[in-house]
Amino acid sequence: ATARFGLCFSCRLINTGLYLLQDEDQQVRTEAARFGSMVTFTKDGQPCFEMQANQVLLSLLDLLLEEFWDRPDSLEALLSHLPPPDLDAVLRDTQDTQSLSLYEQDEPNVFAEPAVMSQVLLPYLLRLADRARTSACVREQLSRWATDSTAQIMTSFHRCQELLTAGCVEVQHRPHFHGVLAGLFTRAALLLRFLESVEDPRLPCPAPFLRSQLQDTHRLLSRYGILTPVELTSLLLTPVKLPLENLQIW
Fold first, then answer.
1. Measured between alpha carbons, how far is 201 from 5 in angstroms, rounded to an integer?
2. 24 with 109: CB under 8 angstroms?
3. What does pTM read for this prediction?
4. Of 190, 159, 194, nearest in space to 177 by CA
5. pLDDT by residue (tens digit) across 65-85?
6. CA distance 111 to 59
7. How far, rounded to the nearest angstrom, does the alpha carbon of residue 118 sit from its chain's CA centroid?
8. 72-79 and 114-130 are packed helices; what angle lies between their axes, rounded to 10 degrees?
């Protein structure tokens, strides 16, 4: 019990560090970077030197998957940094849509932008999904997540298709639209990789159907000049079949 508590606490501590490294306050990020530098170098047994906040964020993500990849807390931690995949919430948003500067600080934290953070998290989520073939605990965690999340992901893609088909392109000017869209595609990429990895007929959505829906949405977005990141586009539109011997990727 003590060991389980320690693992859970470690995951939560790393996740707290990830949040603090995205804080809008420069001083908070500096202190979090100092702590993260100490944690990552202590783990490697090397002399500690202070890294920049963005470097520490990546180091903590690496540490999370290297040491705690089979913990449910790790999947929850990664997903907690993605915007909810709810396009209707964006449409209901009545905030002022005037342009706001993302660079008010002298040294802005680029990871604070949800669309960028989604791109940063994508390879880590896919690494976790690749473990589903050989790890029963990871497969069980992702199966539960897929069962709980597939309906909302598909609903958001259908809603996006409806809006674009109807010519409602002004949606892209809504606050948070691009952040939510990036988070939606990142979740979809995770779901697709998992579905193609395990090929379990009991899961709520067949992988070919999900891929076709993503291709349709991507074509509509491209038609109206709404571009998805290259990394997401290649993952969603190119089938990925990993041989078992290549699953150990860290």
1. 35
2. yes
3. 0.81
4. 159
5. 998 888 888 999 999 999 888
6. 14
7. 4
8. 150
